[in-house]
Prior knowledge:
There is one protein chain. With 367 residues, this protein is of the alpha+beta class. The protein has helices at residues 16-23, 39-44, 92-97, 120-126, 141-153, 162-174, 182-193, 198-208, 211-214, 221-233, 237-245, 263-275, 283-292, 299-312, 318-331, 337-340, 347-365, and strands at 10-14, 31-35, 48-49, 56-58, 65-68, 71-74, 82-85, 107-108, 114-115, 128-129, 159-160, 217-218, 249-250. The strands form four sheets. Strands 3-4-5-2-1-8-9 form a seven-stranded mixed sheet. Strands 6-7 form a two-stranded antiparallel ribbon. The chain has a two-stranded parallel sheet with strand order 10-11. Helix 5 (141-153) links the parallel strand 10 (128-129) and strand 11. The N and C termini lie far apart (69 Å).
Amino acid sequence: MTFDLAPTARIYKVGGAVRDTLLNYPHSETDWVVVGATPEALLASGFRQVGADFPVFLHPETGEEFALARTERKSGQGYHGFTIHADPSVTLEEDLLRRDLTINAMALDEHGDLIDPHGGQRDLDAKVLRHVSANFSEDPLRVLRTCRFAARYHHLGFTVAGKTMQLMRDIVTSGELLALAPDRVWRETERALNENTPRAYFSLLRTLGADTIVLPFVVTDNSLDALDAMASIAPNSLHRWAGLASSAAPNKQAVTPVINIPKRYDQLAARVQLYRGSPPKSAEDTLAFLEHFDAFRQSSQIADGLAVLGAIDKTFHKTLVARIKKGHQLVAGIRGEQFIKQGLQGPEIKAAISAERLRQLDVLLND
């Protein structure tokens, strides 16, 4: 891969693409680091800069990320509390030194030769997640990233190195997690939910005492078991989150959790939690259940709710789930038009719709 950047410029493949290639593990993104070039040279070659905080650019054709080699110096709290130094004098080795884990601090040159100054290949072979340097502690987001990598590779037997665990505990104790941007916390959490073993992410947060800081609930064995149940059948993060969150214990900590949960995730978890262990039995119960999940305006809501409850709650057995689905299909088409034609108005229409839905559900349940 060549561009008209500078005679001395070099481009290296870095990060996850190198790590997963060596692991023979699937990956979807490829990142690059550029040594010996300037932002102006990249822009002149058609690259588009991403934001103003970091020297990261998007390839004009592939959209892959190309970052200028850089160093970082701690200058404040949180993920953005760094002073960035990026110019042609920064070496590849200096850039790799700032990275979080040894398995992420490797590069491949244009000939496919591995540059591995921190033993990343060794740690891949040993299945260990280990920090590159003491600078690991400067970025609290690395606690969540390491937990996410634990979830990604748990099924391969990876564990976190003892000294790295201690650094993570120190970060949690310091209160630095509170300085993280809520959107970043959710982004790492959502990515962890989509990994092979999402349980490992939340279990490790609990071990570190970080769950009560970054989550709106306390992780419990029951919630982890519910997450396992969802992960075994549902490949999407929405269902997995609902299984976990609806089964967790309340977070009574005074500190507001540092996470920005999307409304539909929060809503589904709350709806599922209300009906855990309390399945609808009568026509009235069934109608209330359907209305609770907003089934008559958004049919996907009831499908999501039944998928989660059917997986984590034995009282929502297959026969019951099928009956609720059939009931929804039966009464979803009952609308106000037919009652308007009968001369009903205002509240009378709503009452008539509910009465007809109840009548048909009652017939179904007693058939």
